[in-house]
Amino acid sequence: MKLITPHGGTLVNREVHGSEHARLIEASVAMPRLELNARAISDLEMIATGAYSPLEGFMGEADYHTVVSSMRLANGVAWSIPVTLPVSSEQADRLRAGADVALYQSEQLLGVLHLTEKFTYHKQAEAQLVYGTIEAAHPGVRVLYEQGDWLLGGRISLLNRPGNISFVQYRRDPAQTRALFRERGWRRVVAFQTRNPVHRAHEYIQKCALEIADGLLLHPIVGETKSDDVPAAVRIRSYEAILNHYYPPTRTVLSVLPAAMRYAGPREAIFHALIRKNYGCSHFIVGRDHAGVGNYYGTYDAHHIFDEFEPAELGITPLFFDHTFYCRVCGGMASTKTCPHETNEHVTLSGTRVRELLGAGELPPIEFSRPEVARVLIEAYRDSKLEPAIV
Length: 391
Ligand SMILES: [Zn+2]
Hints:
With 391 residues, the protein is an alpha/beta fold. The protein has helices at residues 18-28, 38-48, 61-70, 89-93, 123-131, 139-146, 174-183, 200-211, 232-246, 266-278, 301-304, 311-314, 351-359, 371-382; strands spanning 33-35, 57-58, 85-87, 100-105, 108-120, 150-158, 189-194, 215-220, 252-254, 283-286, 317-320, 324-327, 332-335, 346-347. Helix 9 runs antiparallel to helix 14 (371-382).
């Protein structure tokens, strides 16, 4: 049973052990220090574990430009999102290309950047091309505008995993999910990316996909998200609830992805697909407005962007899904593709209505949400862990 090949051909591993580990720790004392923010810490780990294969470090200028302008690395390999390490000009001034830089999470040494180049870049151009807007109101663009004016490029070596790790039991590196899939005899594995609780519509999509695959990887993002997204801890409880009651454990794996959301919509859909390929998934579910935010992207832009690549360039197969719902006439879950009936036969609830119900401690209709999931969300409201604005 052969799993899909990692993107670029080889699963990158930039975590060092043994004598090289000891040597770099000793040498780090004399290196200039750089403290990383949450996004950079997450990217460092994603690079080191091979989740971003074939990247071996933060992008240099050539890769940065081709990725931003044409969604390819300088060597032509498909890649849609710049993975960069921004610093201020003051910080850049004291760093020298060719020298190593010690990377820190507060007082904890995480790794070393083997700095090969530092360069300036055009933030508005990146915003327009990657996010499709130059508006600072867009959360991804805002981060871009607030970050430093210089980018550091070079391979990295990871010495220590980041601290304050949550959901330890659900954390698996790409090598670990691949080993697990092999152990289960899976070859066709479909990944579902999410940053929301799973309601019936998503359950339906996942199960449609599972019908044509050997296994499902439910792969929620637990890296940095917008402050008004449902907190990861609540989401994990809601996933546990639905998996325990409605999914076959022999066909399903819940694992968390420590990546930070960019909210880059279509481009992030490609990025998310390539990441899942590295985790060993052959198929990737792309729903409506994948990784979108506000009204910045068209509902199906994240589907259309896949047409800008030859299937072999991506390797992983996207599975596109439309709007899904329970239809009273069909007597089951359906979509705008499969149901011919009037919309008044569909059980659909606005986000506002769902929030009202949950906030009042009431279960939404069973055709919309599994009661086990709704109870987790109601409880989260009650514990005031959630503002009523955000389920
Ligand atoms: Zn119908």
